[in-house]
Design goal:
By secondary structure, this protein is an alpha+beta fold. It has a domain of about 130 residues: MucB/RseB, C-terminal domain (Phosphorylase Kinase, domain 1, 2-Layer Sandwich). It is built from 4 helices and 10 strands. The strands form 2 sheets. Strands 2, 3, 4, 5, 6, 7, 8 and 9 form an 8-stranded antiparallel β-sheet that branches. It starts with about 25 loop residues before the first helix and ends in a 5-residue tail after the last strand.
Amino acid sequence: MSDTDQQQPAQPSNQPAGEQPETPARSYPRTFGALIGSMIFLLVLVVPIVLIVQWRGNLEREVSGANETYKADWAEAVRSAQVADLDVVYPRELPSGWYANTDPSYQGGDEPSWTMSFVKGETSYVGLELSSRSAQALAQKNIDTQAKEGDEVSIDTDVADTWTEWSDSGGDTGYSAEVDGQTLMLWGPKDGDVRDYLALVTTEPLK
């Protein structure tokens, strides 16, 4: 026998005839698609959160009065209140550079009150409130819970001639007086600013 005849017969293959062995699928197309999907998911998740945070920040600034560019039409609010026969006190005019940063507000009920707020720059402000509450209650509300009552001083204005001084440890000051059976208080961080407004307040009809 030849060497060729002595070779062992080939072992039968388990692979069916006509079929080729499977080639493992490459993983990079699936990985790239997953990456794109993850990026889209993050965008869908993050963008609404960013928008909500921005919206809440704007809302908080508006509610807190921190929007310094807003200038209220305080004169029209005073006219409307007077037409409704409400008791209001207001400045005849505003000193140069000052404006109302919030709309004047009237609150009815058992303790009616009228409030106004004016600012100049970032540190100067003056608040005004006419209320049925006591001067001490208004001082604790608007100046400081530990506000101290000072001396009575004579300041000639359209609405009162005698005023009570109020102050706190931080340097804020206020003045209160009785006006037609109610308490009028003006306050701010600078005594000079408050006194300037005392000289301007009136109850006369605003034309």
